[in-house]
Automatic annotation (TrEMBL), chain A:
Domain 2Fe-2S ferredoxin-type, residue spans: 10-92
InterPro entries on file: 2Fe-2S-bd (IPR002888), 2Fe-2S-bd_dom_sf (IPR036884), 2Fe-2S_ferredoxin-like_sf (IPR036010), 2Fe-2S_ferredoxin-type (IPR001041), Aldehyde_Oxdr_Iron-Sulfur (IPR052914), Beta-grasp_dom_sf (IPR012675)
The organism's taxonomic lineage, starting at the top: Bacteria, Pseudomonadati, Pseudomonadota, Gammaproteobacteria, Salinisphaerales
Gene Ontology molecular functions: 2 iron, 2 sulfur cluster binding; metal ion binding; oxidoreductase activity, acting on the aldehyde or oxo group of donors
Domain of life: Bacteria
Protein name stated in the entry: (2Fe-2S)-binding protein
Pfam families noted in UniProt: Fer2 (PF00111), Fer2_2 (PF01799)
Amino acid sequence: MSERDRIPSTPLHVTINGRRQPVEDVPNELMMLDYLHEYRNLTGTRYGCGIGLCRACTVIVDHEDGTSEERRTCITGAHFFEGKSIRTVEGHAERDEDGEIASLSEVQQQFLEHFSFQCSYCAPGFVNAATVLVERLQREPVAREALEDTISDALEDHLCRCTGYVRYYRAVRDAVLATPGTIKEG
Amino acid sequence: MRRVLLMAGLLVAATGVARAADPGADTDRVERGRYLARAADCAACHTSEGGTPYAGGHPIETPFGTVYGTNITPDDDYGIGDYSADDFHRALTEGELPDGTQLYPAMPYTDYHGISRADSDALYAYFMSLDPVHQQSTQTDLAWPFSMRWTLNAWNWLFAPDDSDDSDDSDDSTADRGRYLVDTLGHCGACHTPRNAFGAVESDHRLEGAVIGGYEAPALTPDALAGRGWTASDLTRFLRDGRSPQGSMYSEMYPVFHHSTRYLREDDLSAMTRALLGDDPPEPTPLAAKSSTMDGQGAQLYLDNCAGCHGSDGRGVAQVASAMPGNTTLRLDSPRNLVKVIHEGIEARSFGTFERVQAMPGFADDMDADQIAALATWLRQRWGGHDDTVDTAAVEDIIGASSD
Ligand code: FES
Ligand code: FES
């Protein structure tokens, strides 16, 4: 019996970036971030503070009703995601048949164009949070005048230690404006 | 002419000397007043969040409506600028303003009734030394019949104590000092002693615990404290640091630490501890063995939602998340505070100069009453020494009451 077999474990069923993952026994106390890194080799999700503060480790949980939410994987157990479908930073770009990146999502593209990040440690969390925001605004558009506040409210918990946020902020604004249906007319 | 000038010069010099003698005494008194204002936690109600100290505005929820702390800076229009020391003493200890208006008993004048005249005068000197703030505090909005202030005379006749304590010095022994700090200045009973239907403190149930603003202000009797594992040194540390092995201050207790107890001298903290636990503190009750295992819904909810910070072994992380074994919230008989904290979370807080603890998220959107009940049951059985079950109806009752 190997060491790992003695750790209380349960099979985990989870869909990541649209693909059902192979069902494996996963330790009951494993955090989702470790599952992504160690079991799925998805290392784009970052470990920053490990205490739920910086949000570098944020992923998107997609609900059946079409809504989505952010979730911090450093403080959330892998089994919280049992039966759920999530998106990680690896899941945003379109890929060609060979798995190479063909085009970036609007949010990713804007982040690049605005030179939003430097070291990029916080970027996966920002990509996911901004994507959740853009998709929410497609369902529930806001008035143009309310956009600045809406962006601040949605992203203010995400920490970036390099950039001072201004470029992130402009990029998210432009991503929203470039996405049809996010702004209420009149 | 020269002589006159010289005389004038002498007079000025003489006054100068007299003035120079006073400031020393005044400074001492003002400093004493500053300390007493902290011990009496005046800021908790008379300072609004982010507002100028003592300029009023903090809302105090009472069962009868919201009362706002008033401006007690020496502003002539909106503060206490035209109060004499006598006026101040009467307002402080009798709840009566110079024009005869009766204060609402949200002002704990029934507790402050025992404040000595010397201490009242020091408090007066301190408040008078502040810069006046020309700002009207929010008007109070109470439900009938309490909106009619004359009803308060009847209330006072029924519930307020009679004699003001005119003794000059309250500091004759540690025991007296401790009670003075706990019952009079600190007015701990304002929250920790149950109140009757008229909102008056039930003095024969002193510090036996009460529910206030949806949270339990736990019982602080020696047996209750020892029953939850408190020792004198832990209690002193809790008051001084806001944290102890039993957990950290949250909800309405945090401002008490922030505005008041962290400023108290070590001898005063020990005196308070002694007043609470008694001269011969009962032995702390050891934590009963765990009766829940790492299996089942409660355990998995803990691992999925809590263990990231509090650890799968519950040991927590220093400066980040409290340790669970023996945590005072888990040891309380009632699951109320535990359920409230899981549901609402705890705001980010600073403790002392170098400690800042981040917020604990609330799980109102993530867990239903069934799940909170399972988690609370598991936590209490694992690290709170309980063997009972928290049922869903009890949780619904608690969170229902909190979400209105
Ligand atoms: S790594 Fe998860 S919030 Fe910082
Ligand atoms: S780019 Fe370095 S932390 Fe945000």
